[in-house]
Structures are given as C-alpha cells and as structure tokens.
Amino acid sequence: VKGFSKLREAQLPTFAREILGRFARVLDRHREGILFRNTWGDGLYVVTRDVAAAAACAVELQDEMASFVPANYGLPDYMGLRLGGHLGPVFRLLDPVLKRRNFIGAHVSRAARIEPITPEGAVYVTEAFAAVLTSGASDDFVCEYVGQLPAAKHYGTMRMYSLRRSASAHPITPVSK
Asked: Taking CA 39 as the corner, what is the angle to CA 53 and CA 15, rounded to the nearest 5 degrees?
C-alpha cells in the first residue's frame, strides 16, 4: 500500500481496521482458491491454487481499494494499492518459525520485485502468469502488454502485463462455503 510508511503512529490502528480489514474480507470471499496468506505491515502475500483464482482475487482487491475513501477515516488521500503477480514453482514447507505451512523460493522473490514497479491502482503480472491465464484458464480477464520493465532491487528485466477484468466479464462473486 503506497503511503503506509508516511502514516503517523496513531493512524496505524485505523489502517489495520479499515484497509487490512477490507483486504481480509476479499481474501475470505476467495478462500477456496487461497493456499496461504500473510501480511508484513502494508505488504500482502497470497499464494493461490491457480492463476484464475489469483487474477480474481487481485482484481477484487483493487476494486475494494478503489472504492475506499481514506480521508473519511482520517488517512491520507494519497494511499493506493499496487499488486504484482507471478506464476512459478515454489517450495511448500512447514515454517519452523511460524509453525505453519509456508511457501518459499526464487519465484516468490520474483513476485515481490513486481509490486514496487506497478502503478497505483494496477495489477502487473509476468509473462508466465499472463500466458497461462489467457490460454484458457479464464475468459474473464485481459492481460495487456506494457513492456520490458526493470524489476525492483536490480532483479533484472521482465516482460510485464497489466491485468484487468475483460469488458464482457461480470464482477466476480465467489461462492463461500
């Protein structure tokens, strides 16, 4: 969440309640497709079963943030959400510190290098993500090529795509059990 580092200490409980709370509700609606979720301050880390679940969740997170008016809650109006997505193999293991399942690997690091280069309000995904999503996983989304962009922290250059709901798609309403 852009702007988190500029929040005053007194604003952090409001941030957690209003912004992270909204994100939690979106993730709860998509829980059937989510394998893991975690936060680090303003960072959100989500592992999904497949790219269609990731795309639906990401687009809905952006929709939720776009409908939020930070000033109504005493938060700065410059806050915005940037999301990055990637598809690749990861290790699923028991994290000895957290004492629960976690996912780690080079492809997790690659995904983390996308968010800082993503414009606010957008979801950028890698070519691997876009290729699988648009090759039949779902007709509900469009991945538009934005170019070869340098990833954060000198992680190299990646072919990036902007993910959005297709014009013909209906809003995603996951079925919760």
From this structure: 110
Tell me the HSE value of 104 on the side-chain side, using a 13 A CA sphere.
Answer: 7
Please compute, for residue 26, the number of CA atoms within 13 A of its CA located in the half-sphere on the CB side.
Answer: 24
Give the tens place of pLDDT for each residue, 106-132.
999 999 999 999 999 999 999 999 999
Q: Residue 23 contacts by C-beta under 8 Å, 6 or more apart in sequence? A: 44, 61, 64
Stated length of the chain = 177
Model confidence at 10, pLDDT cuts 50, 70, 90, reads very high
Residue 131 contacts residue 159 (beta carbons within 8 Å): no
